[in-house]
Amino acid sequence: MDVLVVDHPLAQTRLTAMRRTETESGVFRASLHELTTMVVYEAARLFAIEKYPIETPVARTEGTRLANPPLIVPVLRAGLGMADAALALLPESSMGFVGLARDEETHEPRAYMESLPADLSGQPVLVLDPMLATGGSLIHCCELLADRGCTDIIVCCVLAAPEGVERLRNSGLPLRLITASIDEGLNEKAYIVPGLGDAGDRQFGGM
Ligand code: PRP
Ligand code: URA
């Protein structure tokens, strides 16, 4: 599995704002929005492009467009904070949704929503979830996509734990991973260390 870490200075300053406990939710959401723009920009290098004839006011030349714009799939809740930035860069894309909540005891994902096209064969998919911890949630999401015939999944994260990266790598799913950081590991509650806490709560408040 290909893994790309976006270690650009501007990505790291947004990530730093997100990590800090004192960062309030408005700044946290704005930082996630900006960081998503950078992560998706890097992810887009993986998209196939095609050339087509265009005319400038001066001459005929070749233009460039995405050969097959990806379906964007934010994993609710936390991935919702990445959706606007991704759609702004990819206005030709449409969007599906997967809702997952991790059980606090078992750390296993519980699915509460899915809204995806029935057939994803030939359709690249861009999955958005800021956090890859144990990997359970992203594997669940990517299995839903693979079950619908998807063979080209790009996962965009903000933070990943090595344990989650390894689990994705061993899953055999057809995916590539882009993240702004691979942190040290997981604590006993399966939170990423040093991490940023609960990405859903920090954006939207506790449930
Ligand atoms: C968070 C996060 C991921 C998941 C990562 O969501 O957004 O989806 O945890 O953990 P994992 O890799 O161990 O599965 P959470 O379940 O807390 O729901 P939320 O987005 O509604 O806060
Ligand atoms: N989900 C989060 O929001 N944060 C973590 O550190 C792990 C899972």
Automatic annotation (TrEMBL):
It comes from the Bacteria. This is Uracil phosphoribosyltransferase. It holds the Pfam family UPRTase. Residues 5-205 form the Phosphoribosyltransferase domain. NCBIfam families: PRK00129.1, upp. Keywords: Allosteric enzyme, Glycosyltransferase, GTP-binding, Nucleotide-binding, Transferase. Gene3D superfamilies: 3.40.50.2020. GO terms for molecular function: uracil phosphoribosyltransferase activity. Its EC number is 2.4.2.9. Belongs to the UPRTase family. Its cofactor is Mg(2+). The gene is upp. It is an enzyme of class 2 (transferase). Pathway: Pyrimidine metabolism; UMP biosynthesis via salvage pathway; UMP from uracil: step 1/1.
